[in-house]
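User: Show me a protein chain along with its predicted structure.
Assistant: Here is one chain, sequence first, then structure tokens.
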Amino acid sequence: MTKIRLNKFLASNTSLSRRKADEAIFSHRVQLNGATISSPATYVDSETDEVKLDNHVIIDKTKEYLAFYKPKTVLTSYDRDGEKRCLNDFDELKRKKPAYSGRLDYNSEGLILFSNDGDFIQKLQKPKNKIPKEYLVYTDDNLSETDIKLLEKGITFNEVNYLPCKISKLADRKYRIVLYEGKNRQIRNMIDYCGKKTRRLIRIKIGSVELKNLNPGEFRQLTENEIMEIANV
């Protein structure tokens, strides 16, 4: 992408006018890649540079941030496996193939986040950020209080360590589970550990981003607040 002047970048992506952007820069309120900038003539590449105003990351409005409700029996992949449906079956994704965070297995459903902003996706994926992921889980039998306490403390199953999590019983054989990591088939393996089976698994939240009223196969744009909360992790 062609570089643009810092004051123009600020004026295009915040409520500041070009003159107010200049004033913010002169007042040492703006940082570029961690360094305080004093010249409005500094150039910015929105693909690679991070700009902060008053210690808040400024999001380039040309970038896209999508929430998607992945239906059940869809691969979280752009590559097809036999006759199974995949991400390429959705026009919104097939055209641009944005990066994603929040892989779900074939038989699970719910929220996945997509963006052409690489830094945003990396922040979602870095384990050190411990961004919570919330699920509704339906089981074939109720978890005992002992089961719940064991899972909440963290377990080792099939030589894989699973970190502590939070579990709330919502109804008969229905639970809310909050994870702070994202290992392959994690919840299904945790439920297996307790001698039960997962009948349905829906991810309903990643960080502050919720499914809201999305139906399977539908998209929505993330709000500015949702983007900023993750960008400033």
